[in-house]
């Protein structure tokens, strides 16, 4: 393969990954079937990889791909009467959504990804299927890549994605944006899917690595798309701001050996200041114009951490106040746990420990290693080493990633050596 062909193929693959969601959304909107759309979209890119190195990249690559994919879909429907009969039923739902928007002035694809966001995140689908389908359809990850993201075998993920598509087909889930009266109920589900993807990338639930930056970046990219599609929705701005303000610290969260570096020990010079500034602007948009939402409040907390020169000068009273607001908006033991940690920084470890002890019977914190880890840290700071060691052991048993386990082992070893 000569340099020109290799360069063309690389640019085509990058462009297709970026535009795949738009292409898929247009095809689903036209034909009403996700499986068919995926198949002909893949065939169109294969055709591009054959023709473009010879004929050159067209002026409107997206329009070329869409035209090619549509022709392949029509050819397939002509050959397969069963497929055509099934699509005739599904097309009723497509027709209810109204006519497809026209192509852009430059002939490019209309941007129908918003419909695909709401289809992939429909509440009729199980939560894990929503995230998998969103990554597959909107982020353009392969089934194998989605499987790696969730640390499951490819066959398991393939079954999960097939199950989600079957549910969409059998339940006649419409490919449309919810109406203004439905949007407040449906948008949080879309945001939760993106936040779940980001959380798994920022703090992996298991495996050898603390973070999966590529997964976090895909979630942020999808949030950017959603922000462009719904610019007036303040919680979309809040979610994107939260992602950027947290992801800005990614390089400082691990040491050269991949080990965990706590916030108090991080080199803040390694934080991405441009990303922080963008995130702060989004916080302002999220908190202006009405009551705050959960993502806007969480983004404001992240901004206070990012603005501080160090842990000692962090505005802990303001962070506690924001956690009070967040707890009122979304009562959750995890939020209460984070608030207790902030109270410990504001009022001392004894005050924080008292709040943590109040959560001891909370079933949703069982199996959640940050809870015993937080207790261990405060007990250690209070000089209650025997109790701290027991809490560290509990956290060690529950921690999912090797960097977290290594950090907890170091803390436990230090206590045991001091006791000996």
From TrEMBL:
Residues 186-286 form the DUF6596 domain. This is RNA polymerase sigma-70 factor, ECF subfamily. Residues 120-168 form the RNA polymerase sigma factor 70 region 4 type domain. Belongs to the sigma-70 factor family. ECF subfamily. Residues 16-81 form the RNA polymerase sigma-70 region domain. GO terms for molecular function: DNA binding; sigma factor activity. It holds the Pfam family DUF6596. One of its GO terms (biological process) is DNA-templated transcription initiation. The keyword Transcription applies. Keywords: Sigma factor, Transcription, Transcription regulation.
């Amino acid at each position: 393969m000569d340099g020109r062909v290799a360069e063309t193929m690389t640019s085509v693959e990058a462009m297709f990954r970026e535009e795949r969601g738009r292409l898929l959304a247009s095809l689903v909107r036209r034909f009403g079937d996700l499986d068919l759309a995926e198949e002909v979209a893949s065939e169109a890119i294969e055709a591009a990889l054959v023709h473009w190195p010879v004929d050159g990249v067209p002026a409107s690559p997206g329009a070329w791909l869409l035209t090619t994919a549509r022709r392949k879909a029509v050819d397939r429907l002509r050959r397969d009467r069963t497929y055509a009969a099934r699509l005739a039923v599904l097309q009723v739902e497509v027709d209810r959504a109204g006519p497809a928007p026209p192509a852009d002035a430059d002939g490019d694809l209309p941007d129908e990804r918003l419909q695909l966001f709401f289809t992939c995140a429909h509440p009729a689908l199980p939560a894990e299927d929503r995230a998998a389908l969103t990554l597959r359809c909107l982020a353009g990850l392969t089934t194998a890549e989605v499987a790696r993201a969730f640390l499951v075998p490819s066959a398991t993920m393939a079954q999960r994605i097939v199950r989600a598509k079957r549910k969409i087909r059998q339940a006649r889930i419409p490919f449309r944006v919810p109406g203004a009266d439905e949007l407040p109920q449906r948008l949080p589900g879309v945001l939760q899917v993106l936040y779940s993807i980001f959380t798994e990338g920022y703090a992996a639930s298991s495996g050898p690595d603390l973070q999966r930056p590529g997964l976090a970046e895909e979630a942020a990219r999808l949030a950017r798309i959603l922000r462009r599609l719904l610019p007036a929705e303040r919680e979309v701005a809040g979610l994107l701001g939260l992602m950027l303000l947290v992801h800005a610290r990614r390089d400082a969260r691990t040491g050269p050996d991949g080990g965990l570096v706590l916030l108090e020990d991080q080199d803040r010079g390694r934080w991405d200041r441009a990303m922080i500034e963008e995130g702060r602007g989004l916080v302002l948009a999220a908190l202006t114009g009405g009551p705050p939402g959960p993502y806007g409040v969480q983004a404001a907390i992240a901004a206070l951490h990012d603005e501080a020169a160090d842990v000692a000068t962090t505005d802990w009273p303001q962070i506690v106040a924001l956690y009070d607001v967040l707890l009122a908006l979304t009562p959750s033991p995890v939020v209460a746990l984070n608030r207790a940690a902030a109270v410990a920084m504001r009022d001392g470890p004894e005050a924080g420990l008292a709040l943590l002890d109040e959560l001891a019977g909370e079933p949703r914190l069982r199996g959640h290693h940050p809870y015993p880890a937080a207790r261990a840290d405060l007990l250690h700071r209070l000089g209650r080493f025997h109790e701290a060691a027991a809490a560290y052991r509990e956290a060690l048993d529950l921690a999912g990633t090797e960097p977290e386990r290594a950090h907890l082992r170091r803390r436990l070893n230090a206590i045991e050596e001091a006791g000996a």
